[in-house]
Amino acid sequence: MIRNMLSLIIGVLVGVIIILMMEFIGQLAFPIPPNFDVSSTENLSEYIKEAPLGALLFVIFGWATGSFGGGFMAALIAKEDLLRRSILTGIVLMAMGLANLLSIPHPFWFWILGLSVFLPFAYWGGKIVEKYRNNTV
After folding, report:
1. How far from the centroid of its chain's Cα atoms is residue 60's Cα?
2. Is-contact 66 16, C-beta < 8 A?
3. Strand, helix or coil at 137?
4. Between the CA of residue 36 and those of 40, 42, 44, 101, 130, what are the distances in Å?
């Protein structure tokens, strides 16, 4: 039981770390203007309206890869119900993504595309572990 709870916690942590790394790489590829105050929600809202498409897509790519990695790690650690742990990890990450979307205005297409990546990618991460375990037993 403890191992299954730890799988969710570690899966979410791994997912968040991957998302943060991908967003950092995205900021290297699409740098925020110098002297830009990122602590202001109003400034971030204005930036997102004018941000290059690639910068926004990089965030969604980060959410997808983070969900995949988190789901994979949750399933890898879990003793049972691998896919359930992966999907729960995806749900927690999706809730965090939703909180981000609610705090900073984003375009409508970003909401749809962004929220649609969490669960499938977390599931796929868990499915790979499940398939591997079934083939080695």
Report:
1. 8
2. yes
3. coil
4. 9, 12, 9, 20, 45
pLDDT tens sequence across 81-100: 999 999 999 999 999 999 99
Cα 61 to its chain centre, rounded Å, is 8
Contacts (Cβ under 8 Å, ≥6 apart) of 86 = 11, 70, 71, 72, 74, 75, 122, 123, 125, 126, 127, 129
Within 10 A of 112 (CB to CB), how many other CB atoms are there?
9
Model pTM?
A: 0.91
Q: Tens digit of pLDDT for each residue in 18-77?
A: 999 999 999 999 988 888 777 777 888 888 888 899 999 999 999 999 999 999 999 999
Both tokens assigned to 136: 């080695």
Sign of CA dihedral 129, 132, 135, 137: negative
Phi-psi region of 35 (alpha: psi -120 to 50; beta: other; left: phi over 0): left
Name which of 104, 89, 62, 69 is nearest 4 in CA terms. Answer: 89
